[in-house]
Specification:
- This protein is of the alpha/beta class and 319 residues long.
- It has helices at 35-40, 117-129, 146-161, 174-184, 199-206, 211-221, 290-296, 302-318, and strands spanning 8-16, 19-24, 27-33, 59-64, 69-75, 81-85, 94-99, 103-109, 133-139, 165-168, 188-192, 232-235, 242-245.
- The chain has three domains: 8-77, OB fold (Dihydrolipoamide Acetyltransferase, E2P), CATH 2.40.50.140; 83-245, P-loop containing nucleotide triphosphate hydrolases (Rossmann fold); 259-318, Probable gtpase engc, domain 3 (Ribonucleotide Reductase Protein R1, domain 1).
- It is built from eight helices and 13 strands.
- The chain has a six-stranded mixed sheet with strand order 10-9-8-11-13-12, with helices on both faces.
- Helix 2 links the parallel strand 8 and strand 9 (133-139).
- The structure holds guanosine-5'-diphosphate (GDP), magnesium ion (MG) and zinc ion.
């Protein structure tokens, strides 16, 4: 005698191409979406709103069909979401990468690939827009010499001053992995970063039995098409906490960010806002601009200002 669950609450632990693995206690069902839910995901004019209406981390109401399958009936309200603008599309489509995470760990690498502050700042802004705290993890520290290390620590002081926690890690330095472990403890974290920075490797270092699964994920999903994303949720068994490993995100298009007010996403610009000559100052080429002056006088770091300009002008190009 088997029971069939009806309208139960579950959680999406994997999502791909219209199929969602929904977990409920020890049961994991491969689910599809009920038709009414699919329809809701388009605007009244029929425009597509989401890359996928359901994301890993979503709490849903589902019903079971048989031993292995079920159907998602409803998506429960989200506490947070880490979204980007869906890549490679003219239209503005939201891609929810992970729902309901507590925090974002933005991984960058000291070398191979070289550190890209633009990408890092985009991740930090997306975390803020999605209402999550962000932690910066500078990985592959074993690959830099002592001088470069000092350079990094002095540059990253800016981020620490802005209130971001910064971790310096290497899969070859066990203590550094311990510090990451304590950050992840009892939280639901989403690990983001460009491809090759070491996201999967640091998770493997934390919990070696993840290895096989993350390796498979990497190989199968990365074949060129960036529409195929497989995000997977893991429980950190001995540590407590959960992580969502994401495939390398190549294009970090902003979502949920009002670029008209972009300066508000840069905490260090806050004291200078409203002090420019022009009310509608974009802080890019205008004269008597308090923000550009603050860059000149070293109150705002030039790398951060460059990120601001890139994001600000990108907006005018795409719109
Ligand atoms: N030297 C060094 N190599 C690392 C470190 N972390 C990751 N790698 C290497 O970087 C490459 C990409 O790692 P991977 O975890 O697949 O990156 P992901 O795409 O961000 O998941 C692999 O060859 C790893 O062995 C590190 O801390 N130090
Ligand atoms: Mg990976
Ligand atoms: Zn200005």
């Amino acid at each position: 005698m088997t029971f069939i669950l009806r309208s139960q609450e579950g959680r999406v632990i994997r999502a791909r191409a219209g199929f969602y693995d929904v977990q409920h206690d020890d049961l994991v069902l491969r689910c599809t979406l009920r038709g009414t839910l699919k329809k809701k995901q388009r605007s009244e004019t029929g425009r597509r709103l989401y890359a996928d209406p359901v994301a890993v981390g979503d709490h849903v109401i589902f019903s079971q069909l048989d031993q292995e399958e079920g159907v998602v009936e409803e998506i429960l309200p989200r506490q947070s979401k880490f979204s980007r603008r869906y890549a490679g599309r003219q239209e503005e489509i939201e891609q929810i990468i992970v729902a309901n995470a507590d925090q974002v760990v933005a991984v960058v690498s000291a070398r191979m690939p070289p550190l890209n502050y633009r990408t890092l700042d985009r991740f930090l802004i997306l975390a803020e827009a999605g209402e999550m705290t962000a932690i910066i993890c500078l990985n592959k520290m074993d690959l830099v010499d002592i001088d470069q290390r000092e350079q990094f620590t002095s540059t990253f002081e800016i981020y620490e001053k802005l209130g971001y926690k910064v971790l310096y890690t290497s899969i070859k330095i066990p203590e550094s992995i311990e510090s990451l472990k304590s950050i992840l403890k009892d939280k639901f974290s989403v690990i983001v970063g460009a491809s090759g920075v070491g996201k999967s490797s640091i998770l493997n270092a934390i919990q070696p039995n993840l290895e096989l699964r993350t390796a498979v994920v990497g190989e199968k999903t990365r074949k060129g098409r960036h529409t195929t994303t497989l995000v997977e949720l893991f429980t950190l068994e001995n540590n407590g906490g959960e992580v969502a490993d994401t495939p390398g995100i190549r294009e970090v298009g902003l979502w949920g960010v009002d670029t008209e007010d972009l300066e508000h996403y840069f905490p260090e610009m806050e004291p200078f806002i409203g002090k420019c000559r022009y009310n509608d100052c974009a802080h890019v080429k205008e004269s008597d601009c308090a923000i550009q002056n603050a860059v000149e006088s070293s109150h705002i770091h030039p790398e951060r200002y460059r990120s601001y300009v890139v994001l600000k002008t990108e907006d005018t190009i795409t719109n």
